Amino acid sequence: xxxxxxxxxxDDIQREIEGLRPIDAEQEGRVMAKFxxxxxxxSNAIEGNTLSIGETAALLSYGLTAKGKPLKDHxxxxxxxxxxxxxxDVVRTKEPVTEHLIxxxxxxxxxxxxxxSSVNDDGLRVTRTIAAGRYKTSVNxxxxxxxxxxxxxxxxxxxxxxxxxxxxxxxxxxxxxxHPVLFAASFHHQFVSIHPFDDGNGRIARILMNLLLMxxxxxxxxxRLAERNEYLAALVQAxxxxxGALFELITDACMRSSELYLRAxxxxxxxxxxxxDKQLALLTQSALAERLSxxxxxxxxxxxxxxxxxxxxxxxxSVTKRLETLRPLFAGVLLHLxxxxxxxxxxxxxxxxxxxxxxxxxxxxxxxxxTEARLFFQxxxxxxxSSKTFVVSVKCSFHARHYAIQAMGYLQAAQEIFRxxxxxxxxxxxxxxxxxxALEIVVKAVERLIAKN
Length: 453
Fold this sequence. Notes:
single chain, alpha+beta, Fic-like fold, 6-stranded antiparallel beta sheet, 14 helices, 17% strand
């Protein structure tokens, strides 16, 4: 179907839904809960939030936090969910879009001002304030995956541009000139082009787009994490005046929501097969959270050996293999594995085989315990700029009753990617997940290195 045919089909579905109202309250509650969970999860995941769909559900339904995940990721989910609470009232009262409303939604989402660490244009790490509910005071820009810099409105331009955008929205509300779905998509792009806040612009843009849709009787357009690259590419095309791809993407998302709601209105199932995965993930997360609520057993050298053999060795092997492919980018490379013991002792080995040959017997003796295990990679004299030194590392810290794994990338603070107690069994799925998390940080570090070129 072409775009117009899709819009016609969408409107046909909307009319059919209206003809079935009122639908069963319990059934409507289930479908709206699904929309809410999917919206919370996907909109945050698109921005890099690491909580899974199950962890998102566990947090919102039971207040359970996910092990090894950043506090900011939990706060972002909770803040986004709080905005959806407010949004329902705005839709019901048909409140027009105003700058005050937009700033208020941003205030609710962030909760309060935040101090964050970031890298400035000179490559220096600085601390800056993310203001909740207030327009930006410094320039913001985005480096795309292709290394291009996407620039947004200057802080001095932002108030006037936002005033104009809101005026356009209210003029369209009074005298429509285009299909509501297309206008909502266009509004979304214009908002992103301004990028009025220091943080949270993508999430607020999608919230405002859906507010416009819902005020016209449509269901929210939930863009999926799997569509992230397509979505970002569509926004870049829209910058050049080509909105077709964005219109198609938003229309398809609206269609998915309307088809699901219609199925529910007819008494059909709300869940699809993926939802069973989500439910299982929620149950698993609940069980793990309950186990982590206790202190856990005190770690012994034998426990450390178990972690090394079942988690660190395969994870280090996976990451090392990929790091080796970066050698051509540098004039020289330093790659080694470290082990710190108590009683005092430090080993440095250039290969995993040599590392394991020392660490395993030391732990097996029961006399020495690990305090830290680390994979370290340093690339000197980057081919694009010989003054640059590229460093990434993955470190496991062994504490009395738990251990934690952190990964650090080029010009990036260390980020915790996994935490567990010693009495937890380590599954192959967790090994894969930790390896992926570490490698994602490596990839972002390489992108950052190349982008600075």
